[in-house]
Amino acid sequence: MELAAEDAKLVTLAKASRARISASAGAAVRDQDGRTYTAATVERNSLTISALDLAVAMAISSGASRLEAAAVTAEEDIAVSLAAVRELAEPGAVIVFASPAGQVRQLVNL
Question: Taking 80 as the threshold, does the pLDDT of residue 78 lie above it?
């Protein structure tokens, strides 16, 4: 599946975030101004946050009001809540789900 250059960049950033700490998933989002935010899943005894939720939270805390796109990379298909992304998604926003190697598995249009 061929991605637009900006969406392919999100996949690359999500891959790097996941690999940095050997997390189960990595995510990246792009806001209305083209800024990107990346995160990895946090799984600790006292705290669990999905990579996608954390990337969205980082965008919001930096002043983002809309999201253009998102990407998630993970070893296997994982259950991911799309609620936070849907709340901020611009019309036509897309979420790319990919393997750790960056192979696109699924595109979800919001």
Answer: no
